[in-house]
Structures are given as C-alpha cells and as structure tokens.
From TrEMBL:
Name under which the protein is recorded: Sorting nexin-14
PROSITE patterns to which the protein is assigned, alphabetical: PXA (PS51207)
A GO term, aspect molecular function: phosphatidylinositol binding
Keyword Transcription regulation: no
Gene name for this UniProt entry: SNX14
UniProt KW Chaperone keyword: no
Residues annotated as transmembrane: 23-44
Keywords annotated in UniProt: Membrane, Transmembrane, Transmembrane helix
Species this chain originates from: Hydra vulgaris
Taxonomic path: Eukaryota, Metazoa, Cnidaria, Hydrozoa, Hydroidolina
Amino acid sequence: DINQIGVLSIILLILCTLTMVRYTFLVFSVWSFTFGIGVAFFLLRNYKVIPNLLLLLELTGTVKEVAELKEVQNEKKGCGVCLKKDCSRHKPETTSQPTFLLESLKVPKPVDDAITEFLEIVLGTHVYSWYWDISRDQRLIDEIRIMIRHCAAVILNRVQKKNIPQFLLKNCLKKFMIHLDCFFTSKQIASPNDDMQTFVFEKKNFYKHFCLQSEAAELQYLRYTMHAILPYLMPSKAADCRGSTYLIEEICSSIILKPLMEKISEPALTLSLYDLMHNAAYLYPMMQFMKRENALNLLQFCLAVEEFNQRSLAMDLSESEKVKLLDEAKQIHLDYFDSKAVDKINFPDDVVKEFKDAILSPNDSMTQLRTASPLFRAFEFASDLLEKYYVPLFHKSDEV
C-alpha cells in the first residue's frame, strides 16, 4: 500500500537523522530529495500525459486505466454482431468499430486537407495511370480512398487509447539504450578503417532484422505486415473483396510505408545548416537548390561572413591584413547591403546603417567590426531564414 510505504519511509528517515546528526549536509540532502519526490507526486498524480518515473507508485487516472475502463464497458455491452457477451466467433477489432470511423474523430481541417491531397497524389500517380485503361468507373477508386482513410482513423483511434509516455519509457527507451551501448562498445573495439555497421553485424553478432538483408526483403516484410494487420483495420465487409484488399495492401506497403521508412532512416534528414555549409558532399546540392529558389545570395552571404569572421578574429593581424579585411568588409556591404546591389538582402534598416557606419568610420574600422554587432546580427538574420525555411525545403527536394 502507498500509505504504508510512505509511513515506513518517514520513520526510516527519522531514525537515520537521529543516528547521523553529525552528517548534517547528507541528512539535509536526503530530506530535500524525499520532500521533492513527495511534492511532485501529489501535484502531478492526476495528470494523464506525464509518465510515472517512480516504479513503486502508480498514478491514478492514467490513460491505461481509461482504456481498460472502456474495454470493460465494451465487454458488458457484448458482441457488436450477435450481442453475446462471451462471443468468440466475431472479431471485436472489426465489429466494434463503426464503418466510417473517421466521421466520429475530430481531426483539424489542415490535417484532413493534407491527408486528402496526399491520397489524391498517390491515387493519381499509382492507380489512375493504369486504371483508366481498364475502366472509367470511379467506384473502385472511391472505395480505395475511403478504406485507406478508414484504416488511418482506426490507427489514430487505437493510438489515442494508449499511454504514449509509458510506451516510450518502457519500450522505445530500452531499445534505444541497447543500440547506444552496442554502438559505443563497438566503437572502442573497431579500428578507424572499419565500417561500423558491418563490424556490428559481423563481429559483434548483433541481431540483424530481416528488412536489412536487401531492399526486396524490406518490401516483402512490409507486405507481410500489412497483410497481417489489415483485417483489423478494415471493416469486415470490405475484407470480403480480395481484389481491392490486395490493392490496398500494395498501396500501403510499397507506396506509403516503404518511402516513409527510407526518409526516416536517411541521415540527410537530420542535417542542419552548419552540416550543409561544412560538408562538400551536401554544399553543392544545397547551392543548386538555392539557385533554383532564387535565394542563393543568402547562402553565399553566410559563407562569406563566416570566412571573414574566422580571419578577422585572428590575433596579431598585420596592417596589410587589416586593410585587406576592411576592403573585404566593404565588398560584403556592396554585394549584400547596398540598395543597388544585385544580390541585396532585405536586412533590418538599423543593421544596414550600423554596418555602413562601421566600415566608413575614420577611426580603427577593424576594431569596430570586431566589437560591433551589425554583421553578427545580419548573419543571424540570414542563417535563421535558411534554417527555418530553406533547409526543410531542401530536405524534401530532389537534390537530397
């Protein structure tokens, strides 16, 4: 019982405090830690989305309890087909769901519009291209569209019933730590010339998933997975037509899931602006993309300013080097700050004015450029624009 555990813990702490009076700092730390745990538990015990990090204490009102309560209520209602409470003939996964579950779910309009657009692109590219040569009847296409949306609605409905924080802590975190430990132990043993992935699979005898054997094996696994779970996602009547069911399996596995898995596991998906600017393998494709977007001046400005800062911040610059750097700063102003420049960037007016005053100052201009902030603020302006807008677009482009 939680109350008994709490009372015993307090009694134990009091006894430890009386016997360890000399170690005031240690006793105070233990009491502070215990007090913090107690306050956090009583304040957050009714919050459903916060995971329980205390293994001995179960939070009340969690998502798991709500889901179990709904299952008990469904069992009391009985089977959705024959109304028997102990029915073992009909599948509850397919009979308890309404035929059009998506209508009962509250989905934001932008999300619904995105799903509709995505389905139209998939059907237009992979179904209409050959179906129009066979028939002009639209009913099959409409049926496929409705079934895919229904499958997505069933998945969303099931996800909402699960305790996501608990799933991440008990399942995903454990697997992540296993992979992380394997990586670090392999890195200590492997030589610099060894390929880490090959070393892990061959030398460490690490479990190799069936999908990693080949691209064909991955597609075969996705098809088998969709064949196994699709009866639980589709209405029972829709599963009677093997032709449309097989077509939906193929669309979901090879057209939706396979490209999704490739994008998730692609290293370039996580590249930041810094990685793109300092890796020659990605810098050229990025420049081609920015040129097509008519925004190459932003990337060129960031590269020019970064090179200028590295040289200007060096110690013990000679007078000739200072003059050369000042001329380079003036050229940056002419190329990107001047109102008549071809590659002008729309920096804030105060940044443009301060940078112009710094390079035209009669005093030591290099000292002002080192200590003043306009060039750094201009760099932040351009880099933020690249990072927030153009880099995500680059990852979705054909250059990646």
